[in-house]
Amino acid sequence: MADKWDERKKAQEDEYFVKKERELLAKLKATQEAENKAAGKNVAHMTCPKCGQPLKARSFQKIEIDQCTGCNGIWLDPGEIEQVAGKENDSWLGRFWQKNG
Question: Where does residue 55 rank: exposed (0-12), middle (13-18), buried (19+ CB within 10 A)?
């Protein structure tokens, strides 16, 4: 009898924590959407093409690039590779771009 009581109690605890996690995830998602909307970003296109996690805008040499919050990949919008390569003339990227650009 005590085992059944413990099983029911455990199941209730599990349900409670699942409910709380869902509420927290929904709140976090709403907060992120509000932040993205305030920043004027389209949430639908601001996900990592590799892993699907949200992208976060960051500055690299005064160029706004997007970095994945999951896999830390860097994603560039059209024209940004030229901007980065132009500022990196002495680096391997700048030399590559000059040869092949």
Answer: buried
